[in-house]
Amino acid sequence: MKKQILKTCAIAALCLGGMSQAMAEEVSAGTLAISSSVTAETCKFAAIEPVSLTALVSDFTGKAEGTILANTQKFVTIKTEKCPLWSSAKSAKLTISGAAAGPGAAYFQLVNTTGNTAIADHAVGLTINDKPVARGAAINLKDPQYSPGVAGDNAITLKVGLVKIGTASVVQAADSKANLTVKVAYD
Fold first, then answer.
1. 3-class SS at 81?
2. Among 10, 25, 48, 164, which is 20 to 30 Å from 94 by CA?
3. CATH fold of 45-186
């Protein structure tokens, strides 16, 4: 019995010796590829929710041209991401642009959703802190008449509503849309 154990151990030793020789071999060199990109944070607007305004034809009855219908107004909050706080900037100017409509081209044109024909008797009116936001005009958000509409985190609260334009006594029913561009320049 002793012989058999020794014989097994001798064979095992040979096997282990062979294994350790195989493990001592080196693996050929390989390449570890690494790429890196460091970019500046980009100040941008967060997604702006679409606004749906509704009114009855009768809501415009008796309204003067340039009157924003109070019952159509909705609050819209425009937020930014990765921007310095405008409260620490020298100035921050908001500009909203789109096709012109109404007296003094101060309002934003709506177009018919079925044919993109301009709506002639109503448009979009915007206000910030109940002060009109004229199309294409740079509004100083640090100005005391507008600054209450700007939160400490740069969020801008606007009111969007339908405004009567033109002299027609009756506004025509229509489904319409407008795409406006919002920009802020600050230093």
1. strand
2. 164
3. Immunoglobulin-like (2.60.40)
Both structure tokens of 105:
């081209």
pTM: 0.75
How high is the mean pLDDT in each 10-residue block of the chain (187 residues)?
47 51 70 79 89 95 93 95 88 94 93 91 96 93 94 95 91 93 91
pLDDT computed for residue 77 by the predictor: 96
Q: In the 8-state DSSP scheme, what is residue 68?
A: B
Q: What are the extents of the domains in the chain?
A: 45-186
| 92 vs 89: CA distance, rounded Å | 7
- The predicted structure's pLDDT at residue 2: 45
Cα 4 from Cα 35, distance rounded (Å): 60
Residue 123: CB partners within 8 Å, gap ≥ 6?
A: 101, 102, 107, 108, 109, 110, 162, 163, 165, 178
Q: What is the 3-state secondary structure (H, E, C) of 107-167?
A: EECCEECCCCCECCCEEEEEEECCEECCCCCCEECCCCCCHHHECCCCCEEEEEEEEECCC
* Alpha carbon distance 42, 146 (integer Å): 25
Bridge partners, 181 (sequence order):
97
